[in-house]
Amino acid sequence: PNSVWHVYQRLIQLRHQNPIVVRGDFEPLTTDSGVMAYIRSFEGERWLIVANLTDKLQHFNQPNISEILLANVEPITTQLQPYQAYVAKLAL
Questions:
Q1: CA gap 52, 36 in Å, rounded
Q2: Half-sphere exposure of 28 (CA within 13 A, CB side)
Q3: Bridge partners for 89 per DSSP
Q4: Phi/psi of residue 47, each to 5°?
Q5: Confidence (pTM)
Q6: Block means of pLDDT (10 residues each) for the chain, length 92 residues?
């Protein structure tokens, strides 16, 4: 897994370089207990943000991802590892 320091550096970089993070529309997704997920949309682009906030495996059916922008644990599958989080661009 990536170090916490690396993940925070990349998050800050994403925020400064992508207006979608600050100005994008927010769409919460219904998830199983312990998983936070939402979509940000801005100027024709859509990002998926997912975090398993538990110490247990969690199931999450993600939409069609085109690119992983940031992940603390890989690979990205429908089974989220404990405390796994990622940011991904969604296919249009």
A1: 6
A2: 5
A3: 47, 67
A4: -120, 145
A5: 0.88
A6: 77 92 92 87 96 93 91 91 94 86
